[in-house]
Design brief:
This protein has about 700 residues and is α+β, with helices and mostly antiparallel strands.
């Protein structure tokens, strides 16, 4: 009782003293599931305007720190910029200033940045200008009024974010502009737009716009264009940008499907020509959270806590690392130069380490400074021993010190077995050391397709070098064996032997049917050269072959994600049976001459190409990379198209239809299949409800009596 009372008292003291507990750190495993991890960063300080002695911050939007430790905070609604230092020794307010002998003031400061000389650039949004101050916060110049000849009609310059590279080139985002970011030279002369975000449509919108008339398209509300919200430039002049795509369904789908193109991605990196060159080597591209609800639960409103993260800020760390802030969920995500997620932490709430509205994050000397707009508070995170270990391993990999890096990554895996970046790091280390097999294993564990393809390509080159003569000889032998086998089968089929009418002969006749379908299916029906039993065997073997094809397809093609072969085989067999039933029902009413067994026989023999192409597909998918997927796709298409042509020919032959009649027959057969499947699921659902109703009555009677 005394221990319980003491615990209660401690909890009360904690709540009274307002001692707060930070959020738990996590990362994502290769399956895209969030898993807890040791803290990479921990809260070491928290301060506000009152802490600095300059009054409460009113809706601050940005924080930037120069290389010498000068800190600037844009107090947007307060119409001022707070100047302090990382040690918080003193603070001053930058609001009114001397503009070449004239009094001037900042109205609505938004984005900030320091250049390499320590000069501060302020986005004075309301006045439509960027103001430059020197290290003593004296006015230097303004950048405003871009050349109207280079601007779209009706454009209003309202700078909201700014960055300056080491050559003095100024990049900025104009609020609500969908033309990309603006570029000014070192003299403040506007040069044009760069990195224009592409307008995107949802899948349903794309479909309907295809069938709409030109007039309907004009009346239809177009998809909301994308605009940047933050940017920063690295030492090499590459511009990192963030954006929140309003077409959230597309963004969510692309993120979770492992899409690598930048169209719907919230983080981009642009080169000097305005092309996105951000590395996305992990299965999931840098986009914040990748595990989220796809739809709003029934009866609930969209609370804006669903769908993809809202990435609103990016800052650059050491060794190519960068950090992104998610305002929707109040989280910070750290990535290495290849786009691998290293750690994530934060969340929404009132406790230290959590945020009400996270709008900016800034990296300085190993620490992270996170700005909460609603609370007007800056939280300082310091890297932990675990975080330092990740940074060390990443740095050693970047510096190509692979032996040392491998040791660090292995130690990290002992600490956190779900750290995908560690598997990738080990894979990179073994890859550069020539241990391609080990590298492939680690990349496969991380589902890192791009890295796996690189390791596999090198492994394949080594194997080809070791077996240079054996591989072509084997290919020649296989081709000769296949040709010889078909030659013997054709000779047997034309022999007229009594064995041709046995089960063995019925099976062998498939070699004739698949190349001469009209003649072959005619003989099967009228000359008894085929049988239902042989067709059943072909159908079962084809279902098993396709199932095994997908089960044993190479990692470069299935990404380590396989479907249960039993499910695939069941679907194929079910589809074949439904086709037979639908076609028989239809042709019975339209004077078709084929019986049900004839239709089934056609279906079975038509599946033979699926058996023949399954083996090449399995072999090629295990010796080619995803960049060479065209060959594998070709064989898959050959199998299905060949089967479809055989099926079409066989149905035409056994029913004695004309070409046009057969087309109509196939179309209505497919419609009938859809109806059968719909009714089947309808009856299953109805049966389930009846069973549930009866079970409920039985339970009620049991309770009453």
């Amino acid at each position: 009782m005394k221990k319980f009372t003491a615990a209660v008292i401690v909890l009360l003291l904690i709540s009274t003293l307002n001692l707060k507990i930070g959020a738990v750190s996590y990362t994502y495993n290769s399956e895209g599931k969030a898993v807890k991890s040791p803290d990479a960063y921990t809260v070491v300080n928290e301060f506000s305007g009152e802490t600095l002695g300059i009054g409460e911050l009113n809706a601050p939007t940005d924080i930037k720190i120069s290389s010498n430790g000068t800190m600037a905070i844009s107090d947007t609604a307060g119409g001022r910029v707070i100047i302090t230092d990382v040690e918080l020794k003193s603070a001053s307010v930058l609001k009114e200033f001397d503009n070449n002998g004239k009094p001037d003031e900042i109205k609505n400061p938004m984005g900030l940045c320091f250049d390499d000389t320590g000069h501060l650039f302020v986005c004075d949004k309301e006045n439509g200008r960027i103001i430059e101050f020197d290290t003593e916060m004296n006015f230097v110049r303004t950048i405003a009024d871009p050349n109207p000849e280079l601007l779209p009609e009706g454009f209003i310059f309202a700078p909201s974010a700014v960055a300056v590279d080491k050559w003095g080139t100024v990049y900025c985002i104009s609020d609500s502009s969908t033309n990309g970011y603006l570029q000014f030279d070192s003299n403040g002369v506007f040069k044009g737009f760069m990195g224009s975000p592409k307008t995107s449509l949802t899948l349903s919108q794309k479909f309907w716009r295809l069938v709409q008339t030109e007039e309907q398209r004009k009346r239809t509300t177009s998809s909301v264009p994308v605009n940047f919200n933050n940017l920063v430039v690295d030492s090499d002049g590459f511009v990192y940008t963030t954006e929140v795509n309003p077409n959230k369904e597309d963004t969510a789908m692309f993120i979770q499907n492992g899409e690598k193109t930048g169209l719907f991605m919230p983080v981009k990196k642009f080169n000097f020509t305005g092309n996105d060159v951000l590395k996305r080597m992990d299965f999931f591209a840098p986009a914040g959270d990748i595990s989220f609800e796809k739809s709003v639960p029934e009866g609930e409103k969209d609370t804006d806590l669903l769908w993809a993260s809202a990435i609103v800020s990016v800052t650059l760390g050491d060794d190519g690392r960068y950090y992104c802030a998610d305002s929707k969920r109040g989280k910070i995500f750290g990535y290495d130069e290849n786009g691998n997620l290293l750690y994530a932490f934060g969340g929404t709430g009132a406790q230290t380490g959590l945020f009400s509205n996270l709008v900016a994050v800034e990296y300085h000397d190993g620490d992270l400074y996170a700005l909460d707009k609603n609370q007007g508070v800056i939280t300082v995170f310091a890297v932990t021993e675990y975080g330092n270990k990740i940074h060390t391993a990443s740095r050693l990999t970047t510096e190509r010190r692979f032996d040392e890096a491998a040791k660090e990554w292995e130690e990290l895996l002992h600490i956190n077995s779900n750290l995908t970046a560690a598997y990738i790091g080990l894979g990179r280390s073994y890859l550069e050391q020539g241990e391609y097999g080990l590298a492939m294993d680690y990349f496969k564990s991380a589902l890192s397709m791009d890295n796996y393809n690189e390791a596999f390509s090198r492994y394949r080159e080594k194997v080809l070098g070791d077996f240079f003569l054996l591989i072509p000889i084997t290919a020649i032998v296989v081709i000769f064996a296949v040709s010889f086998a078909f030659s013997r089968l054709n000779k047997f089929n034309s022999s007229g032997s009594s064995l041709c009418y046995s089960f063995r002969g019925h099976a062998a006749y498939a070699a004739h049917v698949i190349f001469r379908p009209f003649d072959g299916f005619w003989d099967i029906k009228h000359e008894k050269r085929g049988s239902v039993r042989a067709a059943a065997v072909f159908l079962i073997v084809a279902a098993a072959a396709v199932a095994m094809q997908y089960r044993f397809m190479g990692f470069s093609f299935n990404g380590g994600k396989t479907v249960n072969p039993v499910i695939i085989a069941t679907v194929i067999l079910g589809a074949a049976l439904v086709f037979c039933i639908s076609n028989w029902c239809l042709t019975s009413l339209t004077n078709g001459k084929g019986k049900f067994k004839d239709i089934f026989t056609v279906v079975g023999y038509s599946c033979v190409p699926l058996i023949l192409t399954a083996i090449p597909v399995m072999i090629l998918s295990n010796v080619l990379t995803s960049d060479e997927s065209g060959f594998v796709t070709l064989f898959i298409y050959i199998g299905y198209i060949w089967t479809a042509l055989l099926l079409f020919s066989g149905i035409l032959t056994i029913h004695d239809y004309s070409f046009g009649q057969n087309i109509a027959s196939v179309i209505f057969t497919l419609v009938g299949m859809a109806v059968i499947v719909f009714l089947t699921f309808l009856f299953i659902n109805l049966g389930g409800k009846i069973v549930g109703f009866i079970s409920g009555i039985a339970n009620e009677l049991g309770l009453r009596y």
